[in-house]
Queue: 3 jobs
Job 1
Amino acid sequence: MADKKKLLILPGDGIGPEVMRQVKRIIDWLDRKRGITFDVQEGLVGGISIDHHGVPLTDATLEMAKNVDAILLGAVGGPKWDGVAFEQRPEAGLLGLRKELGLFANLRPAVVFDALVESSTLKADVIRGLNILIVRELTGGVYFGEPRGIETLPDGSRRGVNTQVYTTAEIHRVARVAFELARKRQNKVCSVEKANVMESGLLWRQEVTALRDAEFPDVELSHMYADNCAMQLLKNPRQFDVIVTDNLFGDILSDEAAMITGSLGMLPSASLGLADAQGVRKAMYEPVHGSAPDIAGRDLANPIATLLSFAMALRYSFDHTTEADLIESAVKSVLNSGTRTADIMAPGMARCSTTVMGDSIVRSLDKLAV
Ligand code: IPM
Ligand code: MG
């Protein structure tokens, strides 16, 4: 039976469209080979939306986003829009989607594939087998806190202000996601803030502890200051299972965790909202990497992070676990065969383009699915 779930594709800017092209091939493959058909819509977000409509996120795109089962986003931003007013930058389109859809929990897994152990700048012994999950708060904190802005003082100098702010409810809902996911993994959560310097961090620590005591007494909870966490990720990343942290620390630590695995080009993410009465969450899936304007349009980018983001969509939003597993296996087998985009290239491997990586993964799917 064809299943017509709605998927909105927002390729965005830079390498977004070219990596998304490879996802579309997998969507076609699912349709042809597995009888899984999506109702696919496409829209503009970020710089490309500014170019066409003057704003990074139109009401029409937002409306589409609110009415689909999942969104798959490429990347936004680039030097072309550097001069644009702050609230109208490409990034504001992405932040608007997150906020308007209430996507407060950002899941960023950092997994080291055996075939890529040598691609990391860290020693193989330190990272082999790494599998951690960063749960980043995504709709609060300093990204959205008020007051904010740049003002001119009486003496003509200027003052820039942003506000870090969190409430009990905001902390509980994201920590709850972290605890629930930990139960399906190694049952360990490390909560990260700067409770030694920031009141909002102290509140974070207290509220996470209170929630654990009340609802998750079986889950092991530890606390760490963000600076120490940044250091521990490099020293001994395997000590972690699930890390839960605020919007800004999560932004920084997830880039660090991604790089431990060898390349930003490998890491997917899911951004989830609250579950409705049917247990269904609003969801957007996107690679952790950015728009990489330096290599955009040259068929060089690694499409794997976006393909794995689509696999996460299959798993979390569409209940197609078998196909999500298939995509992940296909990626592993292509990496094992030595096919590599430039970002994960290693001596003795075969360097390939974005398109050839897509070809290889589709071929591998054909083999695995018989
Ligand atoms: C990310 C990105 C975004 C963020 C930018 C593009 C606004 O770095 O998703 O990690 O800071 O959240
Ligand atoms: Mg980031």
Job 2
Amino acid sequence: MPNSTSKRRLWRDVRVFDGLRTLPEPMAVVTEGTRIASLVAMRDADENLVEGCSDMGRGGVMTPGLVDCHTHLVFGGGRADEFEARLEGASYEEIARRGGGILSTVRATREASEEELLALARPRLEALIADGVTTVEIKSGYGLDVASELKMLRVARRLGEELPVRVVTTLLGAHALPPEFKGDSDGYIDLVCREMVPAATQAGLADAVDVFCEKIAFSVAQCERVFVAAEAHGLPIKAHAEQLSNLGGTAMAARHGALSADHIEYLDAAGIAAMREAGSVAVILPGAFHTLRETQQPPIAALRKAGVPMAVATDANPGSSPLFMPTLMLNLACTLFRLTPQEALAGMTAHGATALGLAGQGRIREGAEADLCLWNVESPAGLAYAVQPGRLRQRLFQGELTHGN
Ligand code: NIG
Ligand code: FE
């Protein structure tokens, strides 16, 4: 009997979306241990390939495991009251200015214990996993003091230990100004730079550092100070930028070599050029656009023309995107922003991985990690076309079957 690390599995006659494109012919795919061992056209599959494999069946659409590169899954409380207030006409910015929004989640998150936060976040992450996610980024940003930010990051790390998914953590200390620093945003940025970034680094809890560059959050100059601190600690950076207005945060982040700039509805030509120059990924978040009933479209056609890779993510969070379904984001990215289904899928596989500093992951090719999804859909485009939970037939994480049989 082969042991589990050498176990060979064979899928026949699958349509493969390889992370960048749909392969033209039906394929045979073999995994061995934690890796993809072979990827060959069906008509070239011979006896040698099949030798010693367990038969995983025939047909279906295979994609890399989905990569959700932007989430805020760890939080206390809920914001249904804010949802209702926005439906009655209050804007996201107005609610934030009167101490609601992100700050209401900060209050609930500070009060919650690590165990409580873990118990709350677990079913959210299980929902993403059931919809095909094998890699997820999770941000802090609802603690806004050193102890509470570290508490959130520890919860994120524990989720990755307890569930069959790769968790990448991001310190988002500069998400909002906590009430105890009212009137002293520079003082708070001092705390982020001098205490939070060093503490998260020393504890090994942050894989990257993020900021919210916006009028209701932090200025370009303040965000740049956070990036300088991150760089001094060897951490890659990214930014929530150009979501509600154009401040130039994206161009500044790109000059610092940002992995990604996220939201970017208000991004201008200079920002796009800076991203192209830096090789930053544009993270498109249609869930927040939809939830906040925004009207300013991200500059998709210009990003496409410039060759800036576009990722698509849920932005799952209690305020601007309480939507915990990655395949819904594929649909919204196409319907709201006119991405092609292939672009949307690449955004949640290969380009999502690049946005996390994992370039080369989120692909189906020989030698790649066997993080795979097999779907009951007619074609890869079918995943974006219909919104229908339960289409995941099989899921492999690091070569282990975690869903289906
Ligand atoms: O990505 N834009 C800022 N931050 C989050 C929203 C967080 C919240 O509203 O709780 C976002 O949309
Ligand atoms: Fe976000």
Job 3
Amino acid sequence: MNPKTFKIKSFGCQMNVYDGERMAELLGAQGMSAAAGTDDADLVVFNTCHIREKAAEKAYSDVGRLRREDGSKPLIALAGCVAQAEGAEAKRRSSMIDIVVGPQAYHRLPEMVAEAVRGARPVDTDMPAIAKFDAFPERRRANPSAFLTVQEGCDKFCTYCVVPYTRGAEISRPWNDIVAEAHALVAAGAREIVLLGQNVNAWTHDGRDFADLIRALATIDGLARIRYTTSHPADMTDALIAAHGEVEKLMPYLHLPVQSGSNRVLKAMNRSHSVETYLATIEKMRAARPDIAVSGDFIVGFPGETEADFDATLQIVDAVRYASAYSFKYSARPGTPAASMEDQIPRTVMDDRLQRLQARITENQMSFNRSKIGVDTQVLIERKGRHEGQMIGRSPWLQSVHVETAAQPGEIIDVTLVAAGPNSMTGAARQKAAA
Ligand code: 5AD
Ligand code: SF4
């Protein structure tokens, strides 16, 4: 029987969230409708992440749980980076999986569903350039803050990372396609666009670079805010830094992963930046945009990381004064160079370092948030809060702000930030001056 309803569950990065939205639109265009949960879906798509070990294991155990009490199960598609990495092997690991579809093959999802209905178990992990974007229908719905993937893949080959293998080589979507999609998103209600790419600041097309793209998108009426993620320090050009000082709609927030504060470890990671060049970039950025909130990613326990290396990581957290940061225990990914390096770090050591790093990050996050108490700013309302009358939105610095207001999602309101927690702020709505 042809499936009538679907549920897509996305894990991992924002690019997966974006892909999940586009797959939903694609299935919607086939006449299928979204189910509330996996229990009442005829088709369940697991849009998986392969970046760390547990994520893949979780995907398989989630698939296992889809067996229903009466013994039946929905059609199951394994999508995303686990699908790309595992390929046909996924069907062997779980007999419940009907479809295996890699991140560059989503345009084929409807026909693969039809094949699965006929009893086949199709696998597609090809990587044709950009084909999937052309197949997606035009965007008709958008969140107040909407994702737009402009670039995919990675040529950097950090020694710990699977992304170059799962998402393929760096590739940029064409200028016109991006501009058209941005217009469609704004027409559909987006006030903010978050440009996405594994190396988004490496975007380039027909001699134009990422800073040119941002400046062009900033001219779209009705679009109030532009953000982007994730950036590689090596592609942080002067032009992009200058845009932060000049383009008002470009929000004062920069996610710039450093991974480690030790040059020895950075070299072993093949990061192509040093502590010094990274700090110089941050300094230039602060000169262009003094209030920029800097965020980052860290890996603790990379093979060979000594206590002195780790100490250097703690030091860079304080030197940068991160407004937020994500930190992870190193996870050996099969096929990556680091997985076969000597001196893998014991789990207990990683646990201890992660805890200390996170404490240091939280301190920095807290002091950044405290520094904003009393500041008059604007909040883009995104959704309802837990309490009656409370709404949650984002400050320009990407802080989550709780505020009592009648304003609805998509509205940008004037707010005074009045209290700070480690992960969010409280805001007080300011009355607009009478006209
Ligand atoms: N182990 C742990 N963390 C990793 N990341 C990427 N690969 C690994 C790995 N093998 C982290 C990096 C990256 C973020 C998206 O995930 O910090 O910036
Ligand atoms: Fe996970 Fe990276 Fe794939 Fe995103 S690109 S889903 S973070 S492995």
